Amino acid sequence: DNPSKTSRTGYFNYKFIPLGANKDDSDYGYGKATHLHLSWLRLAEVYLLYAEAAAQGYGSPTGKSPTFTKNAIEAVNVIRERAGVSGVADSYTSDLEKFMGEVRRERAVELAYEGHRFNDLRRWKLLTVYPYNIKTTQKFDRAEAFNPETNPKERKVVNFREEIVTQRNLSGKHYWLPFKTDDVTMYPEFNQNPGW
Fold it and tell me: Which residues 6+ apart lie within 8 Å of 41 measured at CB?
């Protein structure tokens, strides 16, 4: 198959591409390849940024700006409710660090494929910290042989394993971005960022 007309993975990314967007639909203007049109800022990200700022700024998952009606937990729950899942579990709502872990996870899920993760990890100073510096794959086997009459959810999972695909070899310098060489050689006092 021609790579410009097929998916590398075989998966159809519903998040960005409407179900009707296929070779017979010219209404979307996708042409020969898939084009992802991302907005600069979505309302979901605004809620997540608010939740992070309110929790950190007021030192609690129930932190709340005096100019907004929701606290940090309620802001995250707006996103979760829209997705049809239950709110943040109680075990995460009484401790700031546990709640921030949930905010980090929620951002990873909600903003997947939108290009935020690298800068999020830099902002949280977690770019070089395990498990944020690895990519994994999850593999498993099925106990029973394939039967098209059986619901796949009823087939028992065995030998579940997670394997590291890659580990990012990043260091403290990656919390900074390098300046252009032309900029830092203009005059001696204009130094390059640390490590670059």
Answer: none
Specify the residue for token string 């992802």. Answer: 36
Q: Tokens 């910290």 label which residue?
A: 129
Q: How many helices (H) and strands (E) does the chain have?
A: 5, 2
Mean pLDDT computed over every residue of the chain: 86
State the average pLDDT over residues 97-106: 97
pTM: 0.76
Q: What is the pLDDT of residue 1?
A: 46
CA distance 56 to 47: 14
Which residue matches tokens 């001696």?
Answer: 188
Q: What are phi and psi of 42, to 5 degrees?
A: -105, 155
Helix (H) or strand (E) holding 165, with range, is strand 157-167
pLDDT digit string (tens) for 33-61? 555 667 788 999 999 999 999 999 999 99
- Residue 160 has what pLDDT? 94
DSSP 54-89: HHHHHTSTT-B-TTSS-BHHHHHHHHHHHTT-----
Q: Which residues pair with 138 in a beta bridge?
A: 162
Beta bridge partners of 141: 158
Q: How far is CA 36 from CA 7, 14, 154, in A?
A: 13, 11, 36
Does residue 125 contact residue 131 with C-beta atoms inside 8 Å? no
Nearest Cα neighbor of 162 from 193, 139, 132, 185 is 139
